[in-house]
Amino acid sequence: MTGIKIALQRAMRLEGAIGAAVVDFVSRMPLGTAGDPHGLDLDLAAHGDTDVVRAKLATLHLIGYTPERVEDILITLDTEYHLIRLLTRRPHEGLFFYLVLERGRADLDTVRKELHQIEDLL
């Protein structure tokens, strides 16, 4: 089993997880997905979220702000969290982990800590 599949399976075991993807934001392609969020096409959402990542990185560059790393981008909906975690270890530049969570069940602190550990699997 590949590291991506293992990482996705582990992410789906997080409390509140309903969908996950590993995405290459350079090619705009999901490298793997898991789950089936009601009414959400994970492949299409992952493809579209590359624009979110690119826009944030371009904005930081434009304003001359150079943090050591962008850990994650959180999108809060009325019933869900959409968490984008940029994978920054050198072999994984250009990748991000996309996680869809039920807002009422997810503990963001726990999820962020676990995603940090899951990143090591990739």
In short:
The chain has 122 residues and is of the alpha+beta class. It is 35% helix and 30% strand.
Write up what this structure looks like.
With 122 residues, the chain is α+β, with helices and mostly antiparallel strands. It has one domain (3-119): 2-Layer Sandwich (Beta-Lactamase), CATH 3.30.450. It is built from three helices and five strands. It has helices at residues 3-12, 42-62, 108-119; strands at residues 17-24, 29-35, 72-76, 80-87, 95-102. The chain has a five-stranded antiparallel beta sheet with strand order 2-1-5-4-3, with helices on both faces. Strand 1 and strand 2 form a beta hairpin. The N and C termini lie close together (12 Å). The model has no long low-confidence stretch (mean pLDDT 91).
